[in-house]
Amino acid sequence: MKWLAAFFSLITVLMLFNSLPQSNVINSESKNEFSAPSKIMPLKKVPELKAEKDWLAYTKQPEKAEVPTPKVELKPKKPPYPTLTIGDKNYQLLGIFKQNQQPFILVKGANTDLVKLKEGDEFSEGITLQKITTSAVIILQGETTIKFKLFERSDHG
């Protein structure tokens, strides 16, 4: 069976080679002549379309002065992390820690560096860290007491 398939394949290949035209001999002359047309026929002038006229008139118009847009005041964005707002400043509570059985907190203001505060230290003028518990941070602002609860349930709304 293999011999029969090989025989038919050989006959097919030979027939394909025989069917190729042998009269297409490549011209080996290096001299090729090209002739340019002696006369070029001009096209008839086509009238402009209305859309073309409108576009050309639009592009030739002087630029109009831009109307000033009213400035919109942007509302300050609420940060994605919980903040402690005291007066007009926002503080981010980064953590409550203990060192030598003394609790302290790490806070970062919007435009301040990282600050370590122990009980009795001041956030800023008139704002004092009164007490640190496991569930809240109590801050004294003048006569007002602010209790920042750590694990308070939120409605996420």
Describe the structure concisely.
This protein has helices spanning 2-19, 50-60; strands at 83-86, 89-99, 102-109, 114-118, 122-124, 127-132, 136-141, 144-149.
Structure, described:
With 157 residues, this protein is α+β, with helices and mostly antiparallel strands. The protein has a domain at 83-149: SH3 type barrels (Roll). 18% of the residues lie in helices and 31% in strands. The protein has 2 helices and 8 strands; from the N terminus they run ααββββββββ. It has helices spanning 2-19, 50-60; strands at 83-86, 89-99, 102-109, 114-118, 122-124, 127-132, 136-141, 144-149. The strands form 2 sheets. The protein has a 4-stranded antiparallel sheet, with no helix packed on it. A hairpin with a 2-residue loop joins strand 7 (136-141) and strand 8. The chain is elongated. The relative contact order is 0.08. The model has no long low-confidence stretch (mean pLDDT 78).
Search tags:
single chain; 157 residues; alpha+beta; SH3 type barrels; 2 helices
Which structural class fits the helix and strand makeup? alpha+beta
If classified by CATH, what would the architecture of the domain at 83-149 be?
Roll
Unreliable spans? none
Approximate shape: elongated
Q: How many β-strand stretches?
A: 8
C-alpha-based Rg, rounded: 45 Å
For the record, what CATH class of the domain at 83-149 applies?
Mainly Beta
Order of helices and strands: HHEEEEEEEE
Percent helix = 10-25%
Q: How many helix segments?
A: 2
Assess the beta-strand content as a share of residues. 25-35%
CATH topology of the domain at 83-149: SH3 type barrels
Mean pLDDT: 78
